[in-house]
Amino acid sequence: MSAIASSRVPANVGQQLLANWHRAKGKERDALLWGDEVEYLVVAMDDAAKKARLSLAQADILKSLARDEALWQEGTCTYSENKEHDGEEPPHFHPEFGRFMLEATPGRPWGIDFKDLLKVESNMRWRREVAKAHMAPNESPITLTTFPRLGTKDDYSQPYYPPSGPALRSQFVPDEIANPHIRFPTLAANIRSRRGRKVELNVPVFKDKNTPEPFKDPTVDYDLQIWPEDDDVRNGAVKDGHVYMDAMAFGMGSCCLQITFQAKNVPEGRKLYDQLSPLGPILLALTAATPVYKGFLVDTDVRWNQIGNAVDDRTKEELGELPLKNDRWRIPKSRYASNSTYISQDPRLRKEYLDPGLIVDEDIKKRLMEDGMDEQLATHFAHLFIRDPIVVFSEDLEELDLNKADHFENLQSTNWQHMRFKPPPPEKHDIGWRVEFRSMEIQMTDFENAAFAIFIVLVTRAILSFDLNFYIPIQRTTENMETAHARNAVLDQKFYFRKNPFSPPVRRHQPSSSGSNASSAAHSAYNTPPPSPPLAPVESEYELMTISDIINGSSDGSFPGLIPLVESYLNSVNVDVETRCSLARYLDLIRKRANGTLWTGAKWIREFVAKHPAYKQDSAVSEEICYDLVRAVEEMSVKEGANGSVGWEMLRGRKA
Amino acid sequence: MKLILSTSNIMTAGGPSVIRQPTTFKSNVELINSLRANFQAAQQSTLPPNTPTSNDTSASWTRTEEDTLYIPAVDFSQRGLAEERSQYDITVKLFYLPGIPVSRRCAHTRQAIDLVLKELHVTSIDLLIVSFPGILFDAEDDSEEEEGSSVDDGSEEQSDDFDSLVQTWQTLENLQAQGKISQLGVAEFGAERLARFIAHTKVKPSVDQINLKDCCVVPKNLIMYAKQEKIDLLTHNDCNDILPVGTTRELLGPGERGAGILASSPGAEDGVQGDIEMQWVVKYTAVVKDRGVVENKGYFALADVGSCVKPPIY
Known about the structure:
heterodimer; A: alpha+beta; nine-stranded mixed sheet; 36% helix; B: alpha/beta; 23% strand
């Protein structure tokens, strides 16, 4: 198998998309099914040397997991020693970009039966146990977003490989850091070659008392002469005051918490895509857990832009650094970025909410529309299609199969926006249209991960039940995404949000379509409702709000708050006491993260480093601190901050 | 004269039903706000623009049928639910109100259920939960003293005695036998009351609703007993005396926030005259089963008004 980059593919992609669209656009009444994806770093602890290293044993671990899953299918192996998970299918494990990563999903998707919601947390714990059972005794899966010392000069991986290989050409990480499946090094190499230089991540350093001023990243080697790209640092790739990184692994090696929902039909999927979009940055700030890169405390709290920069394949022309000559467009965002389109055919969607500068491939848009796709959705896909497919396997190019979606999926899955609208896979008739919510950071404990996953699920139910309207101009969401990066953004920053999430009341007493004419004189008066008032300026519909106001409601009652909305929803459905009590714990975590009673992961890590006896107030997170931090995170994943154990400030808010 | 107050579908009414301050206290805010919002919406939708609201217009947004005044007028010809009946779980909660004779409950239950069926355009409901006045669940003390244990302002005579619970239940069993209701449930029963009660039933309650405040401290004996008897313990946050007379008079009266239908006091001449006596309140919800979406939720409340209405006991 060989992998190449190609720009000949969009025609095929469009044909596959259209074939699939016509096949599946009429799908109806699919149930709510949803799934969460939890990603792990695999660490190997060396207690003698007091070092935490990344384990690169992904392939062995996955092989051993797959063997046991096969045995389970035959019925000759049981996963859980106790009976807790009887009747549940064993979790699925998947490879990820980083060879030190694992991804786990539930064996079967969740439904909306409230008793299902109770199983999420224990299932997440089970995944961790199963994963751990397939690792060496000194290895374990942890849910930090990033490994604090990835890319430092020391031997941070096990086994150790020296940096600077042909695929990544990074001076900090070896090619062996990436999953060896051809897709991944090819992806990295194609991004680099398309871009014409290495990717560039400059993250502002957190300036502590003893941090050198000006800060010049001391780990950068300006004298390396192995690859042409080694010139990057000599050509100004490194910014003063920043931690510099140069490879896809620094971004795609981050762990996220992603939730995918199956919608009832296309209109519901499009509505959820739009309505969840403004929540992306809010949940990003609320789950902030990424304050350390390459051994330094940084001045940002989240992973998002680092990933964006780590896979940014735009050329200098596309970036606007050179005049357009060979390329077709200036492109304002990386292919990993906040989304830029609204796709619902919702009368509440005003044209002012759309991005006037949206870049679309007009040829593709035209073709999609000629073949019967509505303009809005055609615009969305034609916007995704401005990107080149960065990995294509050559045999796929030989024959185009309209009963598959591989070309389309190839392009869609390398367009990493914070929302994703997923058509049903053509070969699986029992799967419907899906929407993925992708902005959240992974949390250190399964309690938190379950809380955020379930919160988002409940928010979608409240959106559909109350017909909520969170529309704001989509550029404001892009700005919010930037805002979410600031240190302690969850408490210190304000975010654009819609002031009134309710739609005007459904007009009463519309004449029934069946044409019942038996109405009284009084009744006929209802048939001429007053004309709807002209819409107020878009700018008056939203304002800057704190995350606490958005989540808990504003103190003057003008904005109801997502938690009160969810609680009102829960008060309208039949929930058993045990489930409601668990849900109360989850909602309480989110309520208190938003109002500052509980710390975010980012804040907890910062405090852990600051209080560590080996920390010298110089922003450096040493091997010793890293080891203790990883130990603490391991302990936390079991004790979850109970009785004053480590992490209580983040999880409980009290020691007792 | 009878008054039938209604909220229409409060899920899509622009949010008056959302309780903005998160609270675990039992509340009738949802009902009161939704009624008020629905009255206002009805008044506005029938008025030509720029007409000041006055009492004289009440006729245009209410409707009289025989001796019943619908506030606002309900258009039962509108489509009920978007999808076919089998897609929904329809739960109805009926609040029997304090001071109303038990003998009326049979008729009240029929009236309430029939209104809901008519509103939703269905022929049966999945679950009917009944709330008896004065029965309060107390998580700290599940010792179940009967008669006179009511903690509410000494209103002993408002609390149902055990015989009347059983008597009421028999009428529900009959309705269930007629196929209008699939399952029956109670609210706020502790383990002992439940055990004593079940001994007198043909159709066991399949649900016991506990208020939210206590959902994390439900006594073990109740959990065990419910599990053994296959009774689901569900949560709610309604209060028992969900629509007191004073509140109703304020909602319907001539005041600034009133609907301008009732007189300001029984003898006053600024509206419909007479004493008012709330008979029952019913809440209904239709949830799309496999998607967890609440498509329709609302309330009806029935009041007797007039000079011959027996004044409330208190």
